[in-house]
């Protein structure tokens, strides 16, 4: 394999205790060896055997950068199936970046997002479903989502699907062997037994399938719009959501040039704040863009954050906006509670109906934000997780395969209820088995390979 | 020392077929009928189309094979239609996919009738001789040499040696070096094949005893009758012409006493004593195997079947054995009705050389030697029908090779024959391969009743199906389509006569208009019943009606199975280039790489079915192929 050597920071960039710089490729050992010395100041990395860890220092340009532990994993027994060196340095953004720069200056190339995984995948180290989960990790941006993707990797989903498949194949095999050896294997009373098993398996499949709703929220976030009359504090809220709560804001260009989606992390949920480009300049959404545009934004949103100014009376404008969003999942934010106000929750409630929550906040001071985050979580995710072990599907393809499996099991129960002979059950049992297999890569689907290829931006 | 090389006689023909069993007969007939000068060799002219084991043709899934051979233009179906003495459609209580026809044959008549066909087929020469040597040049077949030293130069050879290569028969401590029924074994060809780089292995199979009818007490057994209305195997046979009186078979059971005797004497069974090196069939086990494997079973079925009308010999189905004669007598005599039985021929096991299957292409040509085709038990299968199915394909493909045409390769979604051959050439079969319903993934589409609709066209294109037979199938197809359309087009409402009709048949009343096809979908209603509310229906033959009913009643299932086939075909169409270098697929597991190198699969689909290959290997292969493709596109 002829691969250039890539390097990247494998841990999250933060002020945490340890940071890991991962280097992978044909020259990984050579490159790190050139900047790593042991206690005696010798460059000894090349002589280390695979899967060993060593103490020493990163020295570059005559400068000692950090005291480190370096582990060596030689091809093919590494994550990428290439030579891999991992430098465990002291955490901290500056140290990690300095070590990475030293590696890059010594001949490695900065990795693209997901490139380690891509190599692992292309080198046959991980199967398709794992590759898919890793892609989810790469694109996920908040804690729950990451945890969930990692659970997939750790095989919770795999185990669950495998269990379902084992049970299916047992039934398939039983029917088939009874067909071939009626003398020794009797199907007397079997349909009823199978019926119960199918109903049970369908329930489990459906539960997994339903978790996609949660999974989608975890992974893709909640489409949210902030509404309010001018000067009510929309910008402050935005700034606070992106700034005060240590959230990371990334700008993702939307489908049109004039729309920007702000991806904001609030505790365990991600909010996709749909905004017009001009929102920062002009707070006057209703005036400038018009009621129609606001209506349009509200229509698409899964969550509306409506801001009311607690220091002024409720105006017709407020009422107009309330009217606009009455069918939506709504959270009314009574803002500016840091100032002496004249409006409280009760005063707003009389205008509200349907599905709403009220939170009193001060966008300026950051008060009430935790409560807002909790309210959103309760609204969208509460009850979704029965335990930490709960598996959540985050991938549309997997959700579709689960639906196929569930429909197929339903077909089996129909066949049994219609008193069809046993050999008819196999077709749908097999379909369920295959669909589940495609989720965990036990049934190979060419389309999936192509899809993952396109995700990895192959074929440039 | 006599020297056969002094015989310098040389014949020149197109194709040599070695062996005149069920594979050889179909192969030779296909070649000769396609116009090639063909010689078929047999160690004994009297053993043409011999049935050395069970006296029947067809049965579960094997019946499908016979139908398919017939649809392609083979002889087996026609021959059994002429020589059967009992016929029965099996599994009629189950779905149409597993209905299977089985006929008891008059063994001697079957053999004689096939001999007559061979002897009267143009371009076909029947020759009694043992083929001892394969001649090749530059890895290409050039001819064969017989035991008498005569050379037959030819362009293709089809090996159908059955169980004859280095055969030895075992009956307890007694070992004889013969083929089945004491026929001469072929002891030289194996060596010649090995010299040509063909790898062989050893398999075993067995047969039960034959008994004197006069010594059996049938009053202690259940009589098994044939069907009242006999359905022919061949699509060309007129059903009216074969309705006749049938003989019965008989059912009895083994018991604990039988099993005790077997267990006590296992050390005298050549398999358990380790004398037999060959591996026997799991699905056609000897009674010893059954007693050992199903230790908890108190009894096993025993079918007593006549070997023919001309003889008193009765076949003891279900009790094949390689135990010594004294144990056999004791064992058989514990079975109700067999207390005083007299054995005419002892049960025995037979061991023989056969081919390592990874050496074959799906066309049944060997990868190593061009023009060398193989079929039947030599390829590691068991059963007459499996042999015939490979025989006709080998015959067709040897002929097409000479015609310069692409081989006919049926895939798993087209025919049981496709499943059979694909299994033989891609999977590691450690025992004689027997066709089974469960092996066919798409069996709802591969029914015995629609083999003509599936394969007649191919048979016609090949040249083995007459224009007349093909036209009949086309006509049938049109009639089926028209009738389905008609039934879907006629809407019936909640009228009084309909309501009464439904009531009469315990069927739910209608509230809106539905088509006759919708009504036919109801499990409680049949096509025959619907006649009452469908007075305008055309007069159709029973086989057309059968297809119409199956198509409508099981439409959803058929559609879903077709969807499975579409997925399957996608992987089959993902071809692997002939020149792929598996060493270049760097991340492939070493075992996977070895398997791929050994089998050199033609498609990703086939690659997946090779024993020992797992999904991850296929992912790696797919990724490699996709990368290669991307590379190619880039170059363009």
What would you say this structure looks like, in words?
- The complex is a heterodimer of chains A (460) and B (636).
- With 460 residues, chain A is of the alpha/beta class.
- Chain A is 45% helix and 19% strand.
- Chain A has 16 helices and 14 strands.
- In chain A, strand 12, helix 11 and strand 13 form a beta-alpha-beta unit.
- In chain A, helix 3 packs antiparallel against helix 4, helix 4 runs antiparallel to helix 5 and helix 6 runs antiparallel to helix 15.
- About 7% of the residues of chain A have low confidence.
- With 636 residues, chain B is α+β, with helices and mostly antiparallel strands.
- Among the domains of chain B are: 140 residues, Elongation Factor Tu (Ef-tu), domain 3; 90 residues, tRNA uridine 5-carboxymethylaminomethyl modification enzyme MnmG/GidA (Arc Repressor Mutant, subunit A); 62 residues, GidA associated domain, C-terminal subdomain (DNA polymerase, domain 1).
- Chain B is built from 20 helices and 24 strands.
- In chain B, the strands form 6 sheets. Chain B has a 6-stranded antiparallel beta sheet, with no helix packed on it. Chain B has a 5-stranded parallel beta sheet with strand order 7-3-2-11-22, with helices on one face. A 4-stranded mixed beta sheet of chain B has the order 1-10-9-8.
- In chain B, helix 2 runs parallel beside helix 9 and helix 6 runs antiparallel to helix 8.
- Chain B is globular, with a radius of gyration of 26 Å.
- Classes of the chains: A alpha/beta (460), B alpha+beta (636).
- At the A-B interface, helix 6, helix 15 and helix 16 of A face helix 17 and helix 20 of B.
